[in-house]
Specification:
The protein is α+β, with helices and mostly antiparallel strands. It is built from six helices and 17 strands. The protein is globular and about 85 Å long.
Length: 389
């Protein structure tokens, strides 16, 4: 009786045939037994390709039989399992903030002024005197004296207005002499109030900035931040070289030593000369007192720049211009970087320049001759109509 082997015989393609199971069904090309007739359709699965035949596992030291090529196994890098990702939850609308920051954003003053107000005991939170560093939420009841403060902890940008102040206006809300105030020409707001960033004298004109954020006003005006202020000065006379070097080196005044960071001549005619001056502090009448120290009288003083905000050349006196959200965001980003200067590029672009009239003697474009009115019985081209016979 011939001896039978339990090993599967290899086919012509080199794949071994699996032995039939108890059902006696022959394996298909995929190595699986064929379905029974009448129980399952023998048609291939729709939209699916037949899986490739699974190769026989062999040990590395086992010789490969003749006529069969050993398939190359692709090298797949094993990725280490990383820690589970934790997404940062968005800040809830009811998140708390410091009390002095909330009061400053409400337009009551700078943050330092609000800290002094809290220490006096005039601020109440839920009926109790507030303490310095206390945090509040929108549900808390905040009162300053008898006034209740309504606030929302949102990421809304503050409003910023550029105003071209003329001479003859004062930067205050109430004046015993009844002079015109700059706040009379600003638009009305429902909540908070306009805060002036820096001041200008009664006889000084130029750039004046207003905002609804006490924090922004404090960041631009506090002496420790040293934000540049640029002025155009017209004096009676001329500054000598020795006087110019002394102004840059430092001049002793009544309230301490002061100096200019920049002093450049801008020309002039006759006894009037213009100068460009840059300072980093906002003491009262500082520029005027610097020139008066050397016996030079200032006949006109105009502020043209505050930080990176320039006075638009087309903004007339007594007019204001509100910054857009993009311009306000650029100011905040500049302050976040430490207030570094990057050129004289104004944040608020000037309005479009009107078309210049043609110069005298220049050839003007010829005007088209006006078309004569059509005669009675004529066509649109002016030709007489033909009479029909």
């Amino acid at each position: 009786m011939p001896r039978t082997s339990n090993r599967p015989r290899a086919t012509a393609g080199g794949e071994p045939q699996r032995p039939a199971g108890k059902s006696g069904r022959k394996p298909t090309a995929t190595g699986r037994p064929a379905p029974r007739p009448g129980t399952r359709s023998e048609a291939p699965r729709p939209n699916h390709e037949a899986p490739a035949a699974r190769p026989t596992r062999r040990r590395p030291d086992e010789p490969v039989p003749a006529g069969r090529a050993r398939p190359e196994r692709p090298v797949v890098p094993v990725a280490r399992r990383s820690a589970p990702r934790t997404e940062t939850a968005p800040q809830a609308s009811g998140a708390s903030q410091k009390l002095q920051k909330v009061l400053a954003q409400a337009g009551l003053g700078s943050r330092r002024e609000m800290e002094e107000l809290i220490q006096t005991g005039k601020v109440l939170v839920n009926g109790q005197p507030a303490t310095l560093g206390m945090r509040v939420e929108p549900d808390d009841e905040v009162k300053v004296g008898r006034r209740q403060i309504r606030f929302k902890l949102s990421a809304r940008l503050p409003r910023v207005i550029i105003y071209h102040k003329p001479e003859g206006e004062i930067v205050t809300r109430s004046d015993p002499q009844g002079r015109t105030s700059v706040f009379e020409k600003l638009p009305a707001i429902r909540s908070g109030k306009w805060l002036a960033i820096g001041r200008l004298d009664y006889n000084t004109c130029g750039l004046l900035i207003f905002t609804t954020s006490g924090e922004l006003a404090n960041r631009l005006t506090h002496p420790r931040f040293e934000v540049e202020r640029e002025y155009a000065v017209r004096i009676m006379g001329q500054v000598s070289d020795e006087q110019g070097r002394a102004m840059l080196r430092g001049v002793p005044l009544e309230d301490g030593e002061a100096r200019f960071d920049l002093l450049a001549t801008q020309g002039g005619t006759g006894s009037n000369h213009w100068y460009r001056v840059v300072v980093r502090e906002g003491r009262n009448r500082l520029v005027r007192r610097m020139f008066e120290h050397f016996g030079l009288q200032v006949s006109r003083l105009m502020r043209v720049r505050f930080g990176i905000i320039n006075l638009p050349p087309r903004l007339k006196r007594g007019q204001h211009l509100e910054l857009t959200e993009a311009q306000t965001r650029s100011v905040l980003e500049w302050l976040a970087r430490g207030g570094e200067q990057f050129g004289d590029m104004p944040v608020a672009p000037p309005p479009a320049k009107p078309a210049k009239p043609p110069e005298r003697g220049a050839a003007r474009p010829a005007k088209k001759p006006a078309r004569a009115p059509a005669r009675a019985g004529a066509t649109a081209s002016g030709r007489p109509r033909r009479r029909s016979r």
